[in-house]
Specification:
alpha+beta; BirA Bifunctional Protein, domain 2; 9 strands; binds 3,4-dihydroxyphenylalanine
Length: 340
């Protein structure tokens, strides 16, 4: 029995020497220590031993078992270390390999325009005001002096949540919010998303962007409006651009105008882009209507001001010569990556 145990120990240690992976290591564990293992089988024979022999053999059997277990554990650790070293070796960074250039993103053309506009107006002392896209109908229409029967209030033109709440159809309600919240002098711009119940085509979309501007102070006149907006157009399109103000009608301004700029393509001589007129319509503007000032708690006898609003898709399309609004929303990378 003693001999057999010693042989088992020798055999096992010999087997362990040749092991090179976890699977065969486990096979060895099963072979010697498993339920049907060699050592287990030998120990079952213990019952046949005499009283004197039993403690001696029992002690030896324990030693052999411990030695086998230590051998297995040692081998396991060695294999794990070897595996880890191999993995590290495999993942080692070869700093001499040429790098992979990560693809560089760029801003969406609309965001480029918004950034440009913000920079121009911040440079002129304006600050940025924000308002909610889900807006009170009275802010979007009533306080802006729009009559009850105005067609813009139609279900066909405006998305209503209920009678009192709409998706704002213009950024003009931000004017109202600013005038109600703050005391003049005021000088703010407000870029943001607006919504109209329009079908999508080359020039319409139910979601688009506008930027509103508002200046309120003592003694503000139409000359301030024209000077500010002319300067803005020159900063956006270049010094040679000229502006023209055509009388127009908005409910929240009196008098009102639309501002055209000379065509960026032909410089004013007439081409396909400007429909041979030499001019491109850019924005609406006017002197803030006394009723609007009054609705917002500002005394029109003391203060006056001007406001303007423009569609940002239109500005982007004009500046970049884009002929279809949908290109701005389709997110085709071939289109979007052209604007740096
Ligand atoms: N809110 C107008 C629109 O959506 C644009 C506009 C015109 C805004 C004149 C103004 C303004 O502030 O004075 O068509």
């Amino acid at each position: 029995m003693q001999e057999e145990l010693n042989r088992i120990r020798e055999n096992c240690l010999e087997d362990l020497k040749t092991v090179s992976d976890m699977k065969s290591l486990d096979d060895i564990r099963v072979k010697y220590l498993g339920k049907k293992g060699v050592l287990t089988a030998a120990l079952k024979e213990m019952g046949k031993l005499s009283k004197d022999e039993r403690p001696v053999i029992g002690k030896l059997a324990n030693e052999v078992r411990e030695e086998i277990e230590t051998g297995l554990a040692g081998k396991k650790e060695a294999l794990e270390t070897a595996e880890m070293m191999a993995a590290i070796e495999k993942e080692k960074l070869d700093v001499s390999l040429p790098g992979k250039k990560p693809s560089e993103g760029n801003l969406h053309p609309l965001n480029i325009i918004i950034n440009d506009l913000e920079e121009i107006f911040l440079g002129m002392g304006f600050s940025i005001a924000e308002g909610p896209e889900i807006e009170w109908s009275k802010y979007n229409f009533d306080y802006l002096n729009m009559p009850q029967e105005h067609s813009a209030r139609d279900l066909q033109e405006t998305f209503y949540y209920n009678d009192e709440v709409v998706l704002r159809t213009q950024t003009s309600p931000v004017q109202v919010r600013v005038m109600m919240d703050e005391k003049p002098p005021l000088r703010v711009i407000s870029p943001g998303r607006v919504y109209r119940a329009d079908e999508i085509d080359a020039t319409h979309s139910p979601v688009f962007h506008q930027m509103e501007g508002l200046v309120i102070d003592k003694g503000i006149t139409m000359a301030d409006l024209k000077g500010t907006l002319d300067m803005f157009a020159k900063k956006l399109f270049g010094e040679t651009v000229q502006t023209k103000f055509r009388p127009h009608q908005f409910y929240f301004t009196e008098p009102s105008a639309e501002m055209d700029v000379t065509c960026f393509k032909c410089g004013g001589t007439g081409c396909k882009v400007c429909g041979n007129s030499g001019w491109i319509e850019l924005l609406g503007c006017g002197m803030v209507h006394p009723n609007v000032l009054r609705h917002c708690g500002i005394d029109p006898e003391v203060y006056s001001g001007f406001a303007f609003g423009m569609g940002l898709e239109r500005v982007a399309m004009t500046k970049y010569g884009i002929n279809d609004l949908r290109l701005l929303f389709e997110n085709d990378m071939r289109f979007l990556t052209q604007f740096k």
